[in-house]
Amino acid sequence: MKREYTRKYLYAFSIVPMKLMDAAELVKQPPDVTENPYRKSGKEASVGKQIPAPEEESACQYFFDLNEKQGRKRSSIGRDSKSSPHPKQPRKPPQPPGPCWFCLASPEVEKHLVVNIGTHCYLALAKGGLSDDHVLILPIGHYQSVVELSAEVVEEVEKYKATLRRFFKSRGKRCVLFERNFKSHHLQLQVVPVPLSRCTTDDIKDAFITQAQEQQIELLEIPEHSNIKQIAQPGAAYFYVELDTGEKLFHRIKKNFPLQFGREVLASEAILNIPDKSDWRQCQSSKEEEETLARRFRKDFEPFDFTLDD
């Protein structure tokens, strides 16, 4: 009697649970990824057609958005929302639970340092700045971090970032941005200009990585098209730095973190070479001096001020 044997093949998989993977790996794109060829801008989609251009899908988002409303649903106020006698009122910015040094409406704010005010954000000179034009981008409402910002606030933050890059470039400088969401209650996006003659962008990047390694801080490079909201959850402690090229380095704070780390790196010999200014408390100026610096910045920034166009 002849026996027949069936060949069997076994495949081995090495699967890492998502909860054990770093968030930066989850949003990392495979090599040779190209843009979606079917996504068109409104202008391209409407050429030769008398129909409204579709709204462009959000780029660089790799996760399903549970908040997105799918399908068509008739509005309870009728088909044309513009005909409503009660137009939607703008949302009031979140308020702090107590005194806050950075909420613009708060009496604690040192308003003489404010140099520009937008719709959702404002610019202020940094207290004890690394330079005379070291500024902060701050939300007018009470938000603790970039991760918690609403869409309209994020849009204006990005507008300020792009405008400040142009402003500093016209003055022979590149700017470095960083945020430390740790032992802070109101978002402070630090914008520090660095003269082009001092160092290159790669020098700045290397300085952050080197000093992070010396202090056993793991700085991860975030994929180019990712943002902080994809990496960190609201309430999570973190530090990130953004270079003038758009490159970002991110550290998830688990226990302790040197509060002056961002300043220490930028003040180091490799970048600005002003190590005595690594602590803002050692860089105090009188109110009169601060008022003079604020007036000068407002005047210099005015040709770039996009709020004047609104």
Automatic annotation (TrEMBL):
Superkingdom: Eukaryota
Ranges for region Disordered: 29-54, 71-96
Protein name from the UniProt record: CWF19-like protein 1
Domain Cwf19-like protein C-terminal: 215-307
Recorded coiled-coil stretches: none
Family: Belongs to the CWF19 family.
Residue ranges annotated for the Cwf19-like C-terminal domain, each copy included: 93-199
Gene: CWF19L1
